[in-house]
Design brief:
- The chain has 294 residues and is of the alpha/beta class.
- The protein folds into two domains: 9-211, no CATH class; 214-293, no CATH class.
- It contains ten helices and eight strands.
- The protein has helices at 9-16, 22-33, 86-99, 172-182, 191-194, 197-206, 213-251, 253-268, 274-281, 285-293; strands spanning 43-46, 49-50, 60-61, 64-68, 73-79, 114-120, 132-135, 152-158.
- Strands 1-4-5-6-8-7 form a six-stranded mixed β-sheet, with helices on both faces. It has a two-stranded antiparallel sheet with strand order 2-3.
- It starts with 8 loop residues before the first helix and ends with a helix.
Length: 294
């Protein structure tokens, strides 16, 4: 068997956001949000399009959107590429899902909590070794919760920090994360994962043989885009390194390395924020900011 990459938005939506995905999504959310406890017993998968109710407000999409039996909304985004402004986009989508619930005449107490679950295929918080992180509203100094702190939660899972092998997988959460990260590399469903009915069903949906010609064409287009993006970054880094080496021979090794770092940073300005560029190149934040203004 061949499995498509579940990290692409097309396949992710097909697995977790289609009509037959309810048991899959319940298992997935219970594992990632509620430590594998059966807190969610029912949910409604709804249109992931976050329609604006205010003229001029930006239209946005998330990968999967659901309303739990408690009324709580969960918006889920699987993000493969680290693009500039992504952190703001996560916050915008969560705030929008919360703020656009009320219709004319409804009152604020009717607002339902929103959880924004974001899964990244890149390291989003390099300062932390933790794979999972969750943010709520707190007082800055005392760190006490805002009265409705749980009404808006930002939950992140960084897949590169998940390093368990098939032999060391623990509970259902481990198996779901392994599925997301490694399904495309497998040729059979591992027996330990097959025992979880919902994960086995997810493998069936991701099976290459079960896709129509049109679906495979869409998938191939998505993969080309991702591969081209990664290739462009790799080529930019290689070209900058070669240029830096050439300049290094002429003006000295130290200056050559600095020039190389600046060239790499320039190539990354459209894809990464200043903090990430500084971490990847060794430049200071002030130097990166200066490059944006030049």
């Amino acid at each position: 068997m061949r499995f498509l990459n579940p990290k692409t938005d097309f396949v992710f939506k097909k697995i977790f956001g289609s009509e037959k995905s309810k048991p899959i999504l319940i298992s997935f959310l219970n594992a990632l949000l509620y430590d594998e406890q059966p807190i969610i017993v029912d949910l409604e998968i709804i249109d992931p399009y976050l329609a604006p109710k205010i003229d001029g407000m930006k239209d946005t999409f998330v990968d999967v959107r659901a309303r739990l039996q408690s009324g709580r909304q969960v918006i889920i985004e699987m993000q493969v590429l680290n693009v500039e402004g992504f952190e703001k986009r996560v916050l915008y989508n969560a705030a929008k899902a919360y703020s656009t619930q009320l219709m004319k005449g409804e009152v604020y107490k009717d607002l339902s909590p929103v959880v924004a679950l974001t899964i990244t295929d890149f390291v989003m918080f390099p300062e932390s070794a933790e794979m999972e992180s969750a943010y709520v509203l707190k007082e800055r100094k005392a760190l006490s919760d805002y009265p409705q702190a749980e009404d808006l939660q930002l939950v992140f899972v960084e897949l590169p920090k998940f390093t368990k092998t098939l032999e060391t997988l623990g509970g259902v959460k481990d198996k779901w994360l392994y599925f997301l990260k490694h399904a495309r590399d497998l040729q059979v469903v591992p027996s330990a994962m097959e025992a979880v009915a919902e994960i086995n069903q997810a493998f069936e949906i991701a099976n290459h043989a079960g896709m129509s010609e049109k679906e495979l064409e869409v998938y191939a287009h998505k993969m080309r885009y991702i591969n081209d993006w990664h290739g462009a970054i790799s080529l930019a880094a290689k070209q900058a390194e070669e240029k830096g080496q050439q300049e290094g021979e002429a003006i000295g090794e130290a200056k050559g390395r600095a020039a190389m770092a600046r060239d790499i940073a320039r190539q990354m300005l459209a894809q990464f924020d200043d903090q990430k560029i500084a971490e990847l190149t060794g430049l200071s934040l002030a130097e990166v900011a200066a490059l944006r203004l030049s």
